[in-house]
């Protein structure tokens, strides 16, 4: 995961840069002569250009073209990588074999699981060493999933069973295989390939991003478990299961996982293991392995970039990338040029558009979500919203003056007495200005709730314009949200001394959830009180759909015979939207759902600001994100940085994620009632514009260590039956070792203790240690049995 040694600043570069920054001279924030600003709002580049460029063109003119990074595709697949070029690797796709033939011995409807599994085994063994273009890994949870540790022993068992041998590889297999896609075609020998219309199984590559494509939906997040291996395995396998009993059990277990119907983290782990084991057991589909995406960036000493954070599954096509990347020749500012293969095809609206790679990269740069996907993990990290440790789980009474939108209308209704939630989260939301100069307020941050309930169910009000795709994307919010209450709006001040003070308005909101999660950040990502769009832009889109001007999604646009809503590039739609804005300004219009939150004067001021923004910039894509859409062509866009003094995040805010670090077990001792683990950790040593990663012994615990720097030891104890009997986090002792508690393992027999060390939020490809621990003469533990809790692998 480590980059080449090209990063100048490494971790904590925000501190080093901050003390040398020039005086702020923008907006309303001005420092008197002699002061230096330790905080610089927004992120490094002053301009980001995204341009459509073919990989061959980029490879031919890497230095001449001046492209600092190429997003989504491998630019040098057909030739040598130029000097001073570095790369980042991320999970790209699964290679799968699916028994999907409508007829024959292995037909999809066949109940002969044994025959399918035997045929799959022969094929996988033959494919195991056939090509270096993919990683052989016959299990759906990979080292690039944060929950790989929880599935480590099961993945290892599958790897051992399907590993190639000389005899197996020579024997080949007698399946007729249909190849889908170029990778599958290169892997299959001509003798394996099926004739037209006749096949036993299909070998194909399935992109991870296509399994659970996150919706743009302004202010609404993707499913919070979107990067977890168990969830992707469910999406990959569930529709191919044949036995009714198996399908029923899988759906019930999936529902338990996504609604938090488990007692603790140990039971959750067992459910995840059981779910994946059951999914793979019937061999209707078999994972052969996975491929990695390799994205390149220019690491030249002067003209290149550094501080390049990326996502373990989406690479540069992630929120963390434009928030971290820095041009080497500029402490801040500079012009960043990004290449991407595909032209922008999807409409540019944040509800049902911006879904192609170009549109996603644009949206990831100009929007600002409440939380960010953890770059090298499966959970979430704070961005514009954070959650309080006083949040509660269990049966939580909802106050009678909390609100919930009415289904079909979005009107806010008081809940009254006697309502119970399963989890309460207290959010602190740091607001800022939108690109049109208006300030984010309470009406903005709760409007996504109103939108989700208004458009999520058919209703006479929107019967003709109901959009099933919007209903699906907003489904998790409606299912989880039980109510919300705005507690207060406080002021947060950063005081750097003298007149250098930055103040922010921070609404504090309690959100009550019908379901729960043992990971509070996962629960927090379902329905955060936040919107990156002003309420009037969301209302404008709704009115456009209601009036037949355009539709949110491509499918509805085709069904209704109207344009797909584009806030930027469709000139005719823009003119009709501008006329609506003028009308709403004269009426001081605000929807009925906001009448108690927005006055007529405030509404009129909002519509005037939107009118003025459109007059100046020619589009309606207004956000409160770090970059503003400045100009566009058919093949590219230019984004200008939004260095407004109200923006709460600044240069260096995400530098800790630029270089994913690792931790290692250096010494393990079984003391009988506990296991002690000493650790080594990665540390970064910088010199000018390069860095080295050094492996050093972990010292004693210190109270002043940053949370990001504190290593963690996750452990899992697998009992003799194959169930996980305990899962947790090891205690870090005063002497600098992790202690894993082995007391009260009451079932006699051999236990397997699995341990993995993490640092810096990096749970990708961990070093996992397996320790055998015997317990004799104890009582069996009492616990609820879990069906299929031991891995069921094909024979």
Describe this structure in words.
The chain is α+β, with helices and mostly antiparallel strands. Among the domains are: 91-212 and 222-291, Dipeptide-binding Protein, domain 3, CATH 3.10.105; 661-775, Immunoglobulin-like, CATH 2.60.40. It has 20 helices and 32 strands. A five-stranded mixed β-sheet has the order 4-12-3-23-22, with helices on one face. It has a five-stranded mixed β-sheet with strand order 6-9-5-8-7. A hairpin with a 5-residue loop joins strand 20 and strand 21. It is globular.
Task: Describe the structure concisely for a colleague.
This protein is an alpha+beta fold and 795 residues long. Among the domains are: 91-212 and 222-291, Dipeptide-binding Protein, domain 3 (Roll); 661-775, Immunoglobulin-like (Sandwich).
């Amino acid at each position: 995961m480590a980059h080449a040694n090209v990063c100048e600043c490494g971790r904590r570069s925000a501190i080093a840069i901050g003390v040398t920054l020039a005086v702020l001279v923008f907006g309303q924030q001005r420092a008197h002569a002699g002061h230096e600003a330790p905080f610089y709002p927004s992120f490094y580049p002053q301009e980001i250009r995204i341009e459509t460029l073919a990989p061959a063109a980029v490879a031919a003119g890497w230095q001449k073209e001046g492209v600092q990074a190429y997003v989504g595709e491998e630019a040098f697949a057909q030739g040598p990588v130029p000097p001073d070029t570095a790369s980042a690797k991320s999970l790209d796709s699964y290679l799968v074999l699916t028994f999907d033939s409508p007829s024959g011995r292995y037909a999809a409807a066949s109940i002969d699981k044994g025959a399918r599994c035997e045929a799959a085994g022969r094929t996988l063994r033959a494919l195991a060493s056939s090509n270096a273009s993919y990683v052989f890994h016959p299990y759906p949870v990979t080292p690039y999933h944060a929950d790989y540790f929880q599935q480590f022993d099961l993945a290892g068992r599958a790897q051992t069973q399907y590993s190639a041998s000389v005899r197996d590889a020579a024997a080949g297999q007698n399946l007729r295989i249909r190849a889908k896609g170029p990778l599958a075609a290169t892997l299959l020998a001509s003798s394996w390939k099926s004739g037209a219309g006749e096949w036993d199984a299909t070998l194909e590559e399935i992109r991870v991003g296509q399994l659970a494509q996150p919706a743009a939906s302004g202010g609404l997040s993707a499913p919070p478990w979107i990067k977890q291996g168990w969830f992707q395995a469910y999406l990959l396998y569930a529709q191919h299961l044949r036995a009714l009993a198996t399908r029923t059990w899988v759906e019930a277990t999936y529902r338990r996982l996504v609604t938090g119907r488990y007692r603790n983290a140990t039971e959750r782990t067992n459910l995840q293991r059981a779910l994946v084991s059951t999914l793979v057991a019937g061999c209707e589909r078999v994972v052969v392995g996975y491929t990695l995406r390799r994205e390149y960036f220019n690491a030249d000493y002067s003209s290149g970039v550094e501080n390049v954070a990326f996502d373990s599954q989406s690479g540069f096509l992630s929120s963390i990338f434009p928030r971290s990347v820095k041009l080497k020749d500029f402490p801040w500012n500079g012009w960043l040029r990004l290449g991407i293969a595909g032209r922008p095809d999807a409409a540019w609206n944040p509800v049902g558009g911006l879904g192609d790679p170009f549109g996603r990269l644009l949206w990831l740069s100009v929007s600002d979500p409440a939380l960010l996907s953890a770059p090298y993990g499966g959970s979430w990290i704070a961005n514009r919203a954070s959650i309080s440790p006083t949040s509660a789980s269990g049966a939580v009474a909802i106050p009678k003056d909390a609100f919930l939108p009415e289904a079909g209308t979005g009107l806010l209704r008081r809940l009254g007495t006697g309502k119970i939630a399963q989890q309460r989260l207290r959010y602190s939301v740091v607001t800022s200005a939108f690109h049109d100069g208006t300030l984010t307020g309470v009406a903005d941050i709760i409007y996504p709730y109103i939108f989700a309930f208004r458009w999520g169910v058919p209703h006479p009000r929107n019967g003709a314009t109901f959009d099933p795709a919007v209903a699906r994307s907003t489904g998790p919010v409606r299912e989880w949200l039980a109510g919300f209450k705005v507690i207060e709006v406080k002021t947060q001040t950063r005081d750097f001394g003298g007149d250098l003070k930055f103040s922010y308005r921070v609404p504090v909101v309690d959100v009550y959830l019908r379901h729960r999660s043992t990971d509070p950040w996962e629960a927090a990502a379902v329905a955060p009180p936040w919107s990156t769009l002003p309420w009037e832009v969301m209302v404008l889109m709704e009115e456009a759909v209601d009036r037949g001007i355009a539709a949110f999604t491509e499918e509805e646009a085709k069904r209704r015979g109207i344009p797909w809503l584009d806030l930027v590039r469709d000139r005719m739609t823009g003119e009709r939207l501008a006329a609506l804005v003028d009308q709403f300004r004269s009426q001081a219009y605000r929807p009925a759902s906001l009448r108690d939150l927005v006055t007529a004067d405030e509404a009129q001021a909002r519509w005037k600001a939107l009118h003025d923004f459109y007059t100046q910039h020619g589009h309606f894509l207004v956000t409160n994100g770090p970059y503003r859409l400045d100009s566009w062509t058919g093949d590219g866009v230019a984004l200008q940085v939004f260095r407004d003094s109200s923006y709460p995040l600044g240069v260096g805010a995400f530098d800790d994620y630029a270089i994913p670090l690792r931790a290692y077990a250096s010494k393990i001792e079984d003391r009988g009632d506990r296991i002690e683990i000493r650790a080594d950790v990665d540390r970064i040593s910088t010199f000018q514009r390069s860095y080295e990663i050094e492996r050093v012994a972990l010292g004693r615990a210190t109270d002043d260590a940053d949370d990001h720097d504190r290593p963690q030891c996750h452990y899992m104890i697998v009992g003799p039956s194959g169930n996980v009997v305990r899962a947790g986090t090891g205690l870090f002792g005063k002497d600098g070792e992790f202690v894993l508690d082995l007391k009260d393992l009451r079932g006699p027999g051999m236990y397997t203790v699995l341990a993995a060390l993490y640092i810096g939020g990096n749970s990708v490809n961990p070093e996992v240690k397996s320790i055998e621990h015997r317990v004799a003469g104890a009582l069996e533990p009492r616990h609820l049995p879990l069906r299929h809790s031991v891995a069921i692998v094909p024979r």
